[in-house]
Amino acid sequence: MKIFSANLKNLEELYTASLKKTLDMEQQLTKVLPTMIEKTTDPELRSGLQRHLSETEGHVQRVESMLMDLTGDNDTETCKVMSALATEGSDMLTDADNEQVCDVSIIAACQQVEHHEIAIYGTLRSWADLLGRTNDAAVLEQILEEEKNADRVLSMCSDKLNVEADMAA
Ligand SMILES: [Fe+2]
Question: How far apart are CA 60 and CA 122, in angstroms?
Answer without folding.
Answer: 17
